[in-house]
Specification:
Blueprint: H1 12-54, E1 61-66, E2 73-76, E3 85-90, H2 91-96, H3 99-118, H4 125-132, H5 138-152, H6 158-162
Parallel strand pairs: 1-3
Antiparallel strand pairs: 2-3
């Protein structure tokens, strides 16, 4: 007696037909996903454009959604002098964010870009967040950090990353309170 396995004899022609159908289904599924991904990238690019304008960043930034990014969301310098910066977003993490959190996460990454172009030797998480808090709330960044830490199974110190909540404290005075829209 065989242990639950079912074996079929398939003719070579039927096997080829089944393989072709399986491939066609896979290609069709990928094609159906592509417009959704393109629409999501367009939405992210629109958010980037809006935040760049509000942060007075003129450098080109292109958004891409990737299946996995070990950094979850990151901004990478250009490969060449005429190339744009690349903002890479982990697809699974993107699905976890509310609109406010998405805007906060992107503002944080653009904060890194702002610091890089103004003070390249002062690159810290706190400075990137101080720049981000010009256009988003501390609370939205707190929620993003909560999701990042939950994903990694860790917990960090919000004051270390966002600065003290004491009145008037900003890192190097770089960031006034978040603007209201």
């Amino acid at each position: 007696m065989r242990s639950g396995c079912v074996f079929f004899r398939i003719s070579p022609g039927l096997g080829l037909l089944m393989a072709t159908l399986a491939l066609a289904t896979t290609v069709a599924s990928a094609a159906e996903c592509a417009p959704a991904s393109a629409a999501a990238e367009e939405k992210l690019q629109s958010i980037v454009s809006d935040l760049k304008a509000r942060l007075s960043i003129s450098i080109p930034v292109v958004v891409t959604i990737v299946p996995t990014d070990p950094l979850i969301m990151s901004v990478k310098p250009p490969d060449g002098p005429k190339d744009p910066f690349l903002l890479s977003v982990d697809a699974a993490f993107l699905d976890q964010l509310t609109d406010d959190e998405l805007e906060a996460a992107i503002a944080h990454e653009l904060g890194h870009l702002w610091v890089f172009t103004h003070h390249p030797f002062l690159q810290t998480e706190e400075l990137a967040n101080q720049i981000a808090m010009r256009v988003v709330s501390r609370e939205s960044l707190e929620r993003v950090y909560g999701k990042v830490w939950a994903r990694g199974g860790t917990k960090g110190d919000l004051n270390r990353f966002l600065g003290s909540t004491a009145a008037g404290s900003t890192a190097a005075g770089l960031a006034p309170a978040a603007e209201s829209r």
